[in-house]
Amino acid sequence: MRPIDILWYLLGREDAIRRVAANKASIKVGFVLVLTAGIAREYDQTYIPHFGIRFLLPLLTSLLAALVIYGFLRIVLPPRDAEQPSGRFRCFLGLFWMTAPLAWVYAFPAEHLFAPREAAWINIGLLAFVAIARVLVLSRAIAVLTQICFVRVLASVLCISSVIMGIGSIGAALSLVRLMGGLRYSPEEEVLSAATNFAFVASICGFFVAAITAGVLAKVKQESRFEFPCVSDSGVMPWKFVVVLLATWFVVLIPQQYRLARNHHAMVMVHRENYKEFVQFLSKHSPEDFNQVKRLPPDTYEYHGLSHLAGIANALDGSEALWVREMVLNSIDVALQHRDPYVSRVTPAIAPVLRLPGGEDWVKARALKIEERFNREYDRHAPPEMTSLAQRLKALGLKIADPEQTSGARQ
User: Fold this and answer.
1) Which end of the chain, C or N, has fewer beta carbons within 10 A?
2) Residue 354: which pLDDT band, with cuts at 50, 70 and 90?
């Protein structure tokens, strides 16, 4: 197999499709291509020593998807003979995995070039492009090899793909149900929520349109020749191409792994509640030394970030790097915007802010939000630290209610 055959296959050339389908090395090359697709997807998001299994997920999900699609096509496009020689699925799996290079576009560093919301939309667009391109390439290959009408094959593939997309959109929606607990979405999650809703509706519409189209063409065309060629015993593994390909992605992977290692080290310190050490560690570096995709603690869009917020804020003393201080203040800002104050008890993080340079002005600028949060949490059972903080906030001109009144109002 020549590397150029992979390119021509993706572009739909008939001779390339037949060569790829018949070559016994196709499934091995496809295996490598799927691994590189996993690298393209996770190289700047997953720290290998800790979450390396994620790089193998594309292999498992693609194998499952191939089994489902192949089984569905065997039902709606039955073969001429009830019994077919073995190796047909191997041919199909090789063709399916050969579409993996389309997923290399996931490596586009949108998060490093654009704001979070814009980057999320770009990533959603890339995901849609890859999904559509894979369906078209696979349908073209099946139509060439089986001599079935391309539109009928496309409709059949779209039918089962719509079901898979619908299930995936439900899974994505379930991962966002924490909004019900009072936490607001991050900018990326707002985009994901909108895209998930659209994908679910599109999957339903796409399923019915594709099913009707496939049904009509099945009656008109009267075709039933879903038979793949057997994989031949010929075919040489293009080792030079494989080695160069893996080396290239290794070069892409390494710099981000160094940054992710620093992110992971910072996260470990926070989980161990070594907040002072965490702040000092961050202050020795610049923001560019860390991965830009993963938020550093405290990520107050998440519950675990809220639980560490006060401890990290208390570790600030004015000597930390300016970017570190601004990051923590931005995290407090986000926590103040959550809907349910009982979910995000942010007031313990306010007292440390007051001792920072410009801290009083920062508090005054957010007086309404802080008053709302503080008055909901402040009652006659409050600890002495909150009583002391109440006096300081009153001195700054904030309207802090009497604890007896707030306790009575709740009762």
Assistant:
1) C
2) very high
